[in-house]
Amino acid sequence: MSFQLILDNVSKHIQLTDEEKEHFTSLLKPFKLKRKQFLMHDGDVCKQSAFVTSGCLRSYNVDKNGLEHVIAFAPADWWMADMYSLISGRPGTLNIEAMEETEMLMLSKADQLQLYQDLPKFERFFRILAENSLVAHQQRLIDRLSLTGQERYDKFCQRYPTLIHHIPQKQVAAYIGVSPEFLSRMRAKR
After folding, report:
1. pLDDT tens figures, 119-135
2. In angstroms, rounded to a whole number, what is the distance separating the alpha carbons of residues 161 and 106?
């Protein structure tokens, strides 16, 4: 298995020696999901992070009325986990599902903590990922409160350019907080 994609992802923030690369990749476990299979369900305790090498994951929750609210997508070269559950050790609130056949490299929380001991520079790497995620989620919340549906769709297209025509319109609508019909009308106007 090639680890080049994940090593390129890591090298955006920290530099590793060949020995450090070998140590890091030795902790990664390949994992595959078929379309519509779940990595985790609401109520599960998240014990690992997934780095997507091909395919796409989506995380979502379901409200009391049965409506799905898409929190994030993770195409190739993205990380995904239920961060609340991973950090707290409590049952999560997200479902994480494969949108298509998806291959991932899994890093368990235990191995991640050991990695911090063995290679402290990984604390910097995962801190940067967490900070970037926090900024993105804060901006998305502000966008949800202050932007029109069209503006939120435009931002979605900027954030996930490879997914625009790749995933079902229903999922895009659930992510930007509009009905599929409204999204269809917006796209027709473009």
Report:
1. 999 999 999 999 999 99
2. 25
